Amino acid sequence: MITSEEIKGRLWDGATRLRGSMDASRYKDYMLGLMFYKFLSDKTLEAFKLTSGVQTNDEAEIVEAYREAYEEYGEQLITMIRDVLGYYVLPDYLYQTWLQDIQTGDFAVDKVTDSLNNFERTIAIKGDSDDFKGLFANSTLDLTDTALGSNLNERSKNIKALVLLFADLDMVALQKGDVLGDAYEYLIGQFAMESGKKAGEFYTPRQVSEVMAQIVAKTSSIKSIYDPTVGSGSLLLTVGKHLTVEAQKNLNYYGQEKNTATYNLTRMNLLLHGVRPEKMTVKNGDTLGQDWPEDPQRPNEGVQFDSVVMNPPYSAKNWNNEGLKVSDPRFEVAGVIPPDSKGDYAFLLHGLFHLGQNGTMAIVLPHGVLFRGGAEGEIRKRLLEKNYIDTIIGLPDKMFTNTGIPVTVIILKKNRELGAPVLMIDASKSFIKVGKQNVLQEKDIAKIVDTYTKRKSEKGYSYLAEQKDIIENEYNLNIPRYIESVEEDIAHDVDAHLYGGIPSTDIEQLNVLQHTVPNLLEQSLEEIRPGYVTLTKTTDELMKVILQDDRVVKKEEEMKTSINDYIERYWEVLKNITDLSDITDVRERMLEDIKNTLSLIDHVNTYDGYQIIAEIWEEMLMKDTEKIANSDFYTIGRTREPNMVTKGSGKTKRIEQDGWVGMIVPNGLIKNHLYADDLAQIESKKERSQEVESELAELVEATKVEDSKEEFALSDALNANEDGFTVGGVKAELKATENDSSAYELLKTVENLLSEKSKLDKEVKASEKELKGQTEERILALTDEEVDFLVYEKWFGKVTEKMIRLIEDPLKDELQTLEMLQERYADTLTTIEEESEQLEKDFEKMMQQLVVSD
Questions:
Q1: The pLDDT of residue 9
Q2: In 286-393, which ranges are continuous DSSP H helix?
Q3: Which SS3 state, helix, strand or coil, does residue 670 take?
Q4: Rounded CA separation 819/27 (Å)
Q5: 202-486 falls under which CATH superfamily?
Q6: Which positions fall inside the N6 adenine-specific DNA methyltransferase N-terminal domain (predicted)?
Q7: Each residue's pLDDT tens digit, 694-727
Q8: 131 band by pLDDT with thresholds 50, 70 and 90
Q9: According to the CATH classification, is domain 1-200 in 2.40.128.710?
Q10: I need a surface site. Which of 396, 716, 774, 843 has the fewest CB within 10 A?
Q11: Checking DSSP bridges between strand 224-227 and strand 305-310, what pairing results, if any?
Q12: What's the pLDDT score for residue 128?
């Protein structure tokens, strides 16, 4: 059983290993293209099996039956398969036929080329199969490219290795629950990161897609979605993912892409995600050059969509090659044509033109569109006057592989209430660093979407800009004009620096302490003069008192009860997942529920709690629930799989099995809870071994001291590096040393320590090997109760403790602030003057002691 995470890892490792020095942006076309052809072959065999009534599940037998049936029924059989799928792959050109040729040694690159060309020819016969035409054109998959190998043998070897990478993947089974689509999308993202600046044309980072998609998905009814710069199709698919299952069935996907190879990638990606051919309309063309899609009945309106999403090329130069004028229906609303030097507003206006009256549009653009003047300023003013701009979201810089600049997501609507404010969100500081990129965490995405949904203002984060605000700013939408950064540093108080004491106004700003334990805070402060106080306890002492306070203890108990209830609500649900398609829904419910649960507790960061659950899903639940859905909880809990590890390096690098690991029950938990005594004995021996090692190290250091007794007795027993003793050297010195001498005693001590350490290390190694075997066998014999206990511990064992910290951390943070303030104002003008006077006295005293001699 293989999970989506394992598939992703294996395929990317294979891609990294096989592509050599070939550019990632080019290699992706070969890898993803052949992966898609395997999907088409698998679907063809599935359709044949279903329509012909073949009973076997053996793939080789199905292939042979298909070949025989084709020889007997020919076009009749093909028509039947084509009616089911809309396409077909002939027996001689199946991916499985390539694999058979590899096994028999008859594989040739020409066979792959012929297969791809044959598919193109067969599709061309059927006029309504445009979704598959040109997918494997030479411009995309040129198998004669010397980048694949300098000669035919090299190319054959590399392509054969790539073909084998997908050999054992059942693409039909993996498409269920979108496992295959997720793996494909993951590979696209990985190639994008490897491709650097070349990635901008085909990929929008997942977290940016999520922000846009989750907002757009809030539109009440979505039956059509359009991306005029569709790239790989990830934005379209992400929106679809956030709709109900029923809405997804009725959703029509539209997109246009200028780059032919990327256009092919889009179609493959949509099909692999289970989008039916009749539900997708994708065009290879220049979005700005010629409007598409058009409505012949209403040429000045264009086709309208329920939602429009796009991540266009930023500030595209020379975009107006067609000499478009303001009379173009797309630009009439602006009253001016966007500048030829920057195409940002041209893309925005194109998308807006195709947005339905009740729809939502999300577009990601550089920040310049918010404040640049000239024609762009005129367009921005007209859009604001028309009340089309709904929300401005500022994102961090370095989020995209193709640019380091910060970007903004602009939300547009045509049906906004008259006079409705524009929501400004500054999420530019909410990120973590992953390598060279800045990445939004799940909690950051959730906060942006919640702020959008609730239309709320938050100091330093969001603001509802009324029309008068915007007019005062001359229609400039630059976010800092509306949202001031919250100063984290507390302003210095000159009077406090001069005379000491913490300003009472700063104490009043300690909101969590003031609301939770105001009396304890007051009792720990002493007024030294009006308006200024000093701490009478250390912050450590105060923290101890606060954590033991009944109010805090009660709050923590309430948190424990809430979290235990929360876990219980989902424990049985998670154990009993039977359908892969239910997993995403359960995840969304859990994340939404934890926000609701934590929102009832004062002074707790709801989104930090949200992140805790999101990480549990990412690290454990997504993989485990996939396995449970494909089997059942207790069966999978008692199942183990080979533990494959990488050994060696360079030419000797290899993957080998090193024992077994539980499918969902970690071996470490079995050891900790079911073999605790054995583990304790091993740990005790390890600790003693470390103590012995420390004693030996001390003796080594003593031996390096000149004229010491250790040097005299032990120096000849040191190894060549002089960082340890050799057993042989010690024994030789013992033979040459008198039994009753102090040197003999030292040598004997070293010999005993070396012997003890050797014995301990052997015992530890043997015990660990035995315990490892016992643990691996125990997986198979776990009781239902043990599986329950161990998996619960794995998933939720630390959740309550982490949630409790959400109560304690704000208290600790404010106490640190209090400590900082105490230290800041500890040195007053008086103390500084006293120190200065003392330094002068010391200096004069030193001068008097100086004696000048000839």
A1: 82
A2: 344-353, 374-385
A3: helix
A4: 57
A5: Vaccinia Virus protein VP39 (3.40.50.150)
A6: 8-163
A7: 999 999 999 999 989 999 989 998 998 889 999 9
A8: low
A9: no
A10: 843
A11: parallel
A12: 47
